[in-house]
Design brief:
379 residues, alpha/beta, Rossmann fold, N-(1-d-carboxylethyl)-l-norvaline Dehydrogenase, domain 2, 2 domains, two-stranded antiparallel sheet, 17 helices, 54% helix
Length: 379
Amino acid sequence: EKTSKFLENNADMENLSGCKELKDFVVSLEKPRKIIIMVQAGKATDAVIDSLIPLLDHGDIIIDGGNAKWTDTIEREKKLNQKNLLFVGSGVSGGEEGARFGPSLMPGCSIDAWNAIRDIWLSISAKVDPENGKPIEGATPGNPVNGGVPCASYIGSDGAGHYVKMVHNGIEYGDMQMICEAYHILSAIGGIESKEIGEIFENWNNGILDSFLVEITADILKQKDPKTGKPFVDIVLDAAGQKGTGKWTSVNALDMGVPAPTVAEAVFARCLSAVKEERVNAAKSLPDSGKAISTEDQTELIEAVRDALYCSKICSYAQGFQLMREAQEEYNWDLNFGEIAQIWRGGCIIRAAFLQKITEAYEKDSSLPNLLLDKYFSD
């Protein structure tokens, strides 16, 4: 039913067809077949793969675009290679919008598999302007942007793509928590209203904090609840969920002895937000933070919070890249950190202007032990 409705709503799109049976779908594809699956990580992914295996021929390719754990991807590739099938574990960033209008793609696979999907991956990915690194707009479903620099690149063998996507998500957790804390300081200590904080974030987004998450935060803070007229951020349930990739990142960092406190604390903050009833009861017993600062001190506070947020973001990305550096030794990968930063510039939840500076840092010194040691960031 969903397939029929989708085809009906997109009747003007060329080369779009639907099948009710998996066998019919497989038969409809040109050989070697390239099949993308995007389902919940874990048992659901294995179930789909197991259903496909008896229908495929030697040399066909299964591509997992879900948020799979990298160790599962390694095992799945081994299993499929034994059956003369190729497997790609590709990180996909950008959410539903990215999937339709151009995502950031992080494939991990053999060179043979990459050569088979390379042109497709480069074509459908988001594109950025080669001069300023800004995302190029204008893509529509079935009509990706031509020109520009693709936000897709070969990451490495087996589980490398899904590992890099996991770290990407860990950085995303950290980014969102830091933005939340910046908002809280401006609101609770600065005494600034939500709408005005939205304007502050909008101003920040026009400067060094230019990024997707800061941009959408500015928009969110301006929204009002149509029923009450109150700022939406003040009435929405403040209990965050999580899908597990932040936890995976934190646990892996602990396993390898790599300090990644920003990601870990962001995960704990989500855990804390989930115990809503306990927090409400605690608020009745514990004193509040006191009075807001004077209006005269707000300007200084706003500048201090902006600088702290920027510095914290740099530290968070440095932790993520340090974790990937250790992982490549552990799993025998050859990661290009400059390219990883480059493909995160468009179609990506953590896209930010300063990713260009990260690319430049690793282009100057590919063996840079820590991002904070690059002159641009250390200054």
